[in-house]
Specification:
It is a single chain. The protein is α+β, with helices and mostly antiparallel strands. It folds into five domains: 79 residues, Alpha-Beta Plaits (2-Layer Sandwich), CATH 3.30.70; 124 residues; 86 residues, Calcium-transporting ATPase, cytoplasmic transduction domain A; 141 residues, Rossmann fold, CATH 3.40.50; 116 residues, Calcium-transporting ATPase, cytoplasmic domain N, CATH 3.40.1110. 47% of the residues lie in helices and 19% in strands. The strands form six sheets. It has a seven-stranded mixed beta sheet with strand order 15-27-26-25-16-23-24, sandwiched between helices. α3 runs antiparallel to α6, α4 crosses α6 and α12 packs across α23. The longest helix is centred in the last third of the chain and has 35 residues.
Length: 758
Amino acid sequence: MNGIKVRREWRVTGMDCGSCAAKVRGAVERLPGVADVDIGLMTERLHLSLDEGQTPAARVEAAVRALGYAIAPSPDDGVAVRQSGERPAPGRGTHGEPAPTRPVQPDANASHTAWYGTVKGRFVLATGTLLAAAWATKLVLAAEVAQWAFILATVIGLLPIARRAFATARAGMPFTIEMLMTIAATGALVIGAAEEAALVVFLFAVGELLEGFAAGRAREGIRALANLVPKTALLEVEGRTREVPAETLDIGDTVLVRPGDRVPCDGTVIEGVSGVDESPVTGESVPGLKEPGADVFAGSINAEAALRVKVVRAAGDNTIARIIRLVEEAESARAPTERFIDRLSRYYMPAIVAAAVLVALVPPLAFGWPWGEWIYRALALLLIGCPCALVISVPASIASALSAGARNGLLMKGGAVIEAAARTTRAAFDKTGTLTNGQPHVTDLVALAGTEAEVLSLAAGVESGASHPLATAIRAEAEAAGVAPVPCANARALPGRGAEAEIGSETVAIGSPRLAEERGLMTEPLKGEVAALEAEGKTVVILMRGAMPLGLIAIRDEPRADAADAVRQLASMGIASVMLTGDNSRTAAAVASRLGIDHRAELLPQDKLAAIAEMTSRDRVMMVGDGINDAPALAAAHVGVAMGSGTDVALETAQAAILRNRVTGTPSMIRLARATMANIRQNIAIALGLKAVFLVTTVAGMTGLWIAILADTGATVLVTVNALRLLIFRPDRDVTAEQPPANRRSPRPDGQASITTG
């Protein structure tokens, strides 16, 4: 009977590789009433939809504990969803509403427990002690007694491994490293290799400890993000301050942030002027000046003077919390390479077991060779064949890249996005707010009828409710000039053209020359004035009342200081760039010539979408925009990147986001993605290369059981350590800028690279 399913979440500790996550997934997926299982290896989270009428939560926990992992409910409450076959989007409820949020609560002790205090550490000490005792027995007692000592050490050390092996076998997963270890060690005892069996059990324990240590290092990046937010805040109530837990702050509260303190919330400055270091959040190294009205992020550092800040987001929804949730959700968006490796591993293990059986049986039966020797080689083959290193090769690199990107203000929603970004061959940019500062200002005001003040008053009235940067510039100019906007009614936007409203009994519009052309108002003298202003790189809007043009307003938005450098870096990486804008051709050409970028102008939103669709037919396109007006184009590109300092749209709409409002974040993101894919290829080569070498040497009788387990453990550790190198990768380092001038590449306006000869 169909019932109500509840979205549940647990924290599962002890998972150190992809096969660990696969075991947990396999065990819980088999339970009735369980669906939509999602496991985050690096974030140690288990999410699933559960019909508790069929399977109580306690049974899920028991299934996970039977595999040897610790499990505890997370602070997140379940979200009820009806069994409809549809899964809510991450972070959303059944009907698209925001799901309940929770404060991030990292395990503060996870990274501080000494190795010998962990379960795996104690297992290493126990097996090591047993092995040492057996060797001591061998030195002082007869060989027969020592043999029994090694057998005892093997059996005691093997018991927990065998228990986990049979638990996973009952869950439908017979081909696991624990099962291979159990078979190999038991077989070694049967053929009289007890000493080597005891050594193999100890080395296996050491390998698991090293895997746990390496995985813990990879998780520290995510814990470090959570720890950026201070635990307490100075809450102001009726003019007095008191210290409260930061997670208890409510929207609308006022907090005092002293010099040297970390900001405890996402908020708006209401009093004070100070430099704030946002590098922990956005990666921006230069402190930004914050004054009343400016936004601040939780985790940033107040550097100079006291600030009073109004809370605008709850603790569970601040920028840091949302970044961490994105990193958690990103593990579900697996790269195509990772999905291929997962599929391969399903056939790889049975193939290795079949090969080991053939090695054990064929030589003795077909050629009469010694049974003991070939069974021994088959057992070693089983240990070498474990795919742990191969399975973890991709997720370890992806997790490290996500963490490194988050620390540098570069967010990518999973391995699929990283892989797509690495293949980028063309970058498309929106102009306003992306290549330009997004803070245009009025430069010229031409009254064609009436006075300049009347033109400005009417224009500000029509634009009174608009959020476009040009509208903001017009309202700011009116306020600075002390001109009050004329009251208007029925204001509405004209997408890609402008806006209009009713003032009195007449309709007044303000918009692009295209709108005036459509309405038959562009006389030759007017065209000349517009052309002269546009040739200076200014955007011109025309105020119209009925069939009469009333005035011209010229507005300019300066290019970002780093925009030209970003285009140059992309060209040096073999990536062509193009600017897509709704602005007129002359203004677009003026801006494009300053940046050295190709351009397409006078594009309506649907035209931008068509342009992206046309480019994606022949190139791998990354579209960079403000995340609001460019949403259709962002969605149509292979990778949509929103640029904005932690806005909801920037973090949740696009596939990737650049938190530091810098265009050079685009080449940095591609650089990180390419480094990640290179790291993944290295990991796969290490994993398969070591396996191939030792498979040959084992079948040839050159290496034995203890070398086999060292090869497996060594490959896993090498792969993980190699992936951890991404944590210190500097995506903002422009290697081409360090080359001699003769080798340096510079962009041409057509987006292609050319050689600068000095």
